[in-house]
């Protein structure tokens, strides 16, 4: 199967909007922790709390956001969220310049930005099947994942450079501007009346329960969600520890931290490019399992004690690069399979419930990483994190093994072809 050559003007505009805002978001994802560590003196637990605040809103609002997304114009919701996030992100440097940026203010801004992002992300992934034909979903998701990978590759490096030479506040200004550019591009997307969510008078509670029943009654989607949750737990625990390990244990300057973290995005770009061909040759279910395992295996390289600091930095970069390849492939396959499995009128609710499961692991991972590094040495903390991930993956595989004998579980009749 080859990637679709033309997915239309609407997809191109939305793709460009996503790419621009993602670069800005990736810059903030590095700039805010570096600012918290360098300027506010955050320790491992405080940094874990800050990063955990980014993962709490999906748990608090996710399911209700899904019900709302299925009832409103997703395009208008995307536009509103771009404006709100631009304002909220810009508020952080404004507070800093006014000498009023406290720990509590940074926590609050982080929480509010993440809250708006919950609605935006659910609307985004629910909107894609409305402008992309079913037979081109994998191609569309692969392209979207490529832009995510490019942003993850370039964003941290840009953030490190900006933080080193201009200051982390300017990195946040760039992020705010990126949301405004995304707004302008998304404004150009046109949607036919027939592709808008249908008007429904279904009570909110009943709509909420129907989404929960659909996901928890569908073994395929539950397997997808639980696999993603395992990876998010491991990765966000790792990420919290990496910020402390790179800046304090290895005394890495901000630009080096950015370059090292960018390697994960570079690996993701490779994974996004090759996933569709590999999927066809070895089967979706096997690929789902192989990529989850493959994303975790390289992490054992962190932090093997080396005699030279630069060798340790290179080892982290290589581990993130190799891990990123499998993580991106797993994510693309996960998203495509759940979109194919779900009726369009349930896409918002399905996405929100799945993210309640998978994204709910993010704050737990961030807190876990902070606690591990607070009570154990760096070597022991990273090893314990890998062991936790391995144990959970073994349990997940035990649930998946029965389905390996009937590979058609995730194979659709009339496999997509061109």
Question: Can I get a quick summary?
Answer:
With 418 residues, the chain is mainly alpha-helical. The chain has helices at residues 9-38, 44-53, 56-69, 74-97, 103-131, 137-165, 168-187, 204-216, 219-249, 254-282, 284-296, 309-341, 347-358, 361-375, 378-404.
Q: What ranges have pLDDT less than 50 throughout 5 or more consecutive residues? A: 1-5, 412-418
Helical content (DSSP H or I, runs of 4+):
over 70%
Strand percentage: under 5%
Q: Quick one: how many beta strands?
A: 0
**Main pleated sheet:** none
The Rg value, from CA coordinates, equals: 21 Å
Approximate shape = globular
Total of helices? 15
Please tell me about this protein's structure.
By secondary structure, the protein is mainly α. Helices cover 79% and strands 0% of the residues. It has 15 helices and no strands.
Looking at this protein, list some descriptive labels.
single chain; 418 residues; mainly alpha; disordered N terminus; disordered C terminus
Layout of secondary structure:
Blueprint: H1 9-38, H2 44-53, H3 56-69, H4 74-97, H5 103-131, H6 137-165, H7 168-187, H8 204-216, H9 219-249, H10 254-282, H11 284-296, H12 309-341, H13 347-358, H14 361-375, H15 378-404
Helix pairs in contact: 1-6, 1-7, 2-5, 2-9, 2-14, 3-5, 3-8, 3-13, 4-5, 4-7, 5-13, 6-7, 6-10, 6-12, 8-13, 9-11, 9-12, 9-13, 9-14, 9-15, 10-12, 11-12, 11-15, 14-15
């Amino acid at each position: 199967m080859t990637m679709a050559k033309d997915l239309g003007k609407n997809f191109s505009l939305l793709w460009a909007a996503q790419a621009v805002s993602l670069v800005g978001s990736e810059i903030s994802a590095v700039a805010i922790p570096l600012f918290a560590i360098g300027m506010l003196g955050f320790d491992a637990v405080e940094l874990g709390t800050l990063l955990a605040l980014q993962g709490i809103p999906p748990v608090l609002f996710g399911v209700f956001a899904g019900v709302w997304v299925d009832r409103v114009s997703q395009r208008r919701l995307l536009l509103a969220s771009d404006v709100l996030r631009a304002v909220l992100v810009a508020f952080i440097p404004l507070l800093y310049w006014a000498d009023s940026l406290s720990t509590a203010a940074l926590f609050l801004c982080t929480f509010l930005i993440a809250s708006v992002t919950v609605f935006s992300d659910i609307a985004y992934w629910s909107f894609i099947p409305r402008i992309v034909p079913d037979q081109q979903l994998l191609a569309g998701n692969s392209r979207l994942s490529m832009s995510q990978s490019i942003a993850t590759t370039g964003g941290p490096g840009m953030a490190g450079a900006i933080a080193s030479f201009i200051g982390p506040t300017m990195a946040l200004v760039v992020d705010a501007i990126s949301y405004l550019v995304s707004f302008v591009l998304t404004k150009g997307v046109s949607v036919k009346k027939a592709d808008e969510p249908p008007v429904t008078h279904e009570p909110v509670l009943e709509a909420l329960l129907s989404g929960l029943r659909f996901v928890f009654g569908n073994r395929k989607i539950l397997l997808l969600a639980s696999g993603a949750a395992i990876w998010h737990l491991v990765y966000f625990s790792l990420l919290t520890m990496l910020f402390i390990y790179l800046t304090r244990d290895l005394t890495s300057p901000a630009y080096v931290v950015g370059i090292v973290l960018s390697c994960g995005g570079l690996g993701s770009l490779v994974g996004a490019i090759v996933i569709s061909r590999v999927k066809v040759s070895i089967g979706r279910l096997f690929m789902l399992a192989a990529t989850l395992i493959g994303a975790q295996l390289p992490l054992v390289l962190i932090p093997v004690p080396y005699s030279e600091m630069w060798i340790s930095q290179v080892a982290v970069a290589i581990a993130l690069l190799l891990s990123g390849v499998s993580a991106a492939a797993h994510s693309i396959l996960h998203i495509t399979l759940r979109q194919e499995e779900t009726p369009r009128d349930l896409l918002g609710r399905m996405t929100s419930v799945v993210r309640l499961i998978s994204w709910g692991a993010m704050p737990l991972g961030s807190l876990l990483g902070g606690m591990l590094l607070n009570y154990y040495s760096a070597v022991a903390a990273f090893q314990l994190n890998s062991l936790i991930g391995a144990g959970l993956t073994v349990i997940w595989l035990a649930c998946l093994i029965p389905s390996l004998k009937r590979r058609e579980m995730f194979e659709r009749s009339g496999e997509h072809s061109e």
